[in-house]
Amino acid sequence: MQSPKLSSQITADYILVNYVGTFGKFQKWLTVYMCFLIGPLMAFNMTTQLLILVIPPHWCSYDAFETGLSSTNAAEKANFIPRINNDTFHSCSMYQNINLNSTAFNSKTVYCPNGWKYDNRLIYSTPVSENSWVCKQSWRVYFIHSMYWASSAIGVIVFGVLSDHYGRVKATKICFSLSGIAGIATVFVSKNFYLFVFFRMMMGFCAYEGMIPLIHVTEFVDSSKRLLVSMGYFAFMSLTSGLLPWFAYSIGNWKLLSLVTSSLMFLVPLISIFMPESVRWLMAKGKINQAKKNIEIVATFNGQVTSGYILDNIQFFTKPSQPLRRIFSYRKFLVSSAFVGSNVYSSTLSKHPFFLISANSLIDIISAIAVARLADKFGRKKVTFYNCFLCFIFFSSTVFLKKSEQYLMIDYSFITDDSKIFLVAFFLARLTLTAVFNIKLLYGPEVYPTAVRNRAVAVRMAIGSIGCFISPLIVGLRFLNQTVCLLIFGIFIALAGIIMIFLPETKGKQLPETLDDTEN
Fold it and tell me: Which residue windows are transmembrane per the record (predicted)?
């Protein structure tokens, strides 16, 4: 291949396309790395947070259990525990005066004086049941979840800055190492509420750990393959999220679950020892010699040869960072709030919490596969806008469905026609919402320049974490109205679609190297 006449032509994209290879053996191995390791590990972090804090069925403990009465016999339990309806008993109160020899109706109740009994046949023992974080103490569970997401907003900014200052590889090593340490430590401090909160916050601090290597890999591939990498990563993350609840159910031990998933985090720092730093980042920082060395490493791995002329005439960008003129924080807030909120809402729909977590993940996989083709064919903007519109329609339609206890607490042995219609509408909304979320993951790295890419994406992720933080509060509105939270999420997505109209299309565009490139 002839050498270019002008050095200004020799940019990162020019070298990748003409001399290194945009999707050679090296990039394919990076894709495998993202799909089979990074995606599942990010799912381990977020999904385990839900699985170790599930609440087993519980009711007030009473001495009569010790005399041979069955804790699962509804007729016998009714002598001690007041009913909410035919199938459900109160979890936080029992009759005050119990006399099995009397036929007089006992209506006075009292807050559980002797603690609780837990049914672990379906849901294993968790820190919630071990420490009785139920009823008046249930705020502790929601506090832990809130602190997890609040710390994620801080962590994503910290690691974004670290990544842009010290490199993608170093930030990745630190993030996954902290995640592994925090997850293992959680097992040994579960009896101390404050230490438990601290280490769950540390896990939340690293919750978006997969975004650093995703940006790292994105900077090595051509525009035509970026969506493939992103969707593959998200599909395997969703697949892991769908399978992990059943793994947790099969082992029935939250401590073992946390130890296994956290120990695997240390694989990433070990693999990162052999991972070359992003050439784009090195060029943006003016690290000329290391950039040339890494270009040669990748080219050799791909079976390509680079000339000395090319390496000596690379155009390096060292323009200092300036405030970005386009920050898409509002859209990130709206989409993240609806995405996490719909996941939290789904866990309230079934007596078996593992079922709908897995169902949501299956929907996510289908969406990831479909949206990859659509976004590459029709563009990011158009696919996002239409999916936002459809998501709003499906979420809004749930408001007009018949409301009943049966379809809002779905039991596999008895699924009514109402519940079937509701589930169809809910899962279609989830399908389109996931499509929007998937494109959003890639959109930021495609817009922001190399010098500040991780910091800019980090700001968006932090704003999204605020949305994640408030989404459980929005779901809490279901106690006032069963579907009002879904309507709110639908409105959020509609607003995100409107915002998308004013944003640039990135399909087929080169990754911007400078802040000026971002504006062009």
Answer: 32-55, 142-162, 174-190, 227-248, 254-275, 354-372, 384-401, 421-443, 455-474, 480-503
Question: Both tokens of residue 22?
Answer: 């945009």
Residue 126, SS3?
coil
Q: What is the torsional sign of CA 57, 59, 61, 65?
A: negative
Q: Is the dihedral of CA 297, 303, 308, 309 positive or negative?
A: negative
DSSP H or E run through 118: strand 116-118
Q: Which domains are delineated in the chain?
A: 7-57+119-318 (1.20.1250.20), 58-118 (no CATH), 324-519 (1.20.1250.20)
Mean pLDDT of the residues in the chain: 78
Angle at CA of residue 299, ends 298 and 300, nearest 5°: 90
Length of the chain: 520
Identify the three-state secondary structure at position 116: strand
Tell me how far apart the alpha carbons of residues 306 and 294 are, in angstroms, rounded to a whole number.
11
Q: C-alpha angle with apex 466: 331 to 361, nearest 5 degrees?
A: 75
Q: What is the 3-state secondary structure (H, E, C) of 218-245?
A: HCCCCHHHHHHHHHHHHHHHHHHHHHHH
- 3-state SS, one letter per residue, for 440-487: HHHHHHHHCCHHHHHHHHHHHHHHHHHHHHHHHHHHHHHHCCCCHHHH
CA distance 292 to 308: 10
Over residues 342-384, the pLDDT tens digits come to 776 776 666 666 777 788 788 888 887 787 778 778 888 888 8
Q: Cα-flanking dihedrals φ and ψ of residue 110, to 5°?
A: -145, 150
Find the distance separating the first CA and the last CA of the chain, reported in whole Å.
29
Query: Could you tell me which of 42, 165, 47 has the C-alpha nearest to residue 461?
Result: 42
Sequence-distant (≥ 6) Cβ neighbours of residue 287 within 8 angstroms: none
Q: Which residue ranges of the chain lie beneath pLDDT 70?
A: 1-14, 17, 63-76, 85-87, 98-106, 223, 306-332, 344, 347-353, 402-418, 441-469, 472-473, 476, 478-480, 506-520
pLDDT tens column, 447-466? 665 555 555 565 666 666 66
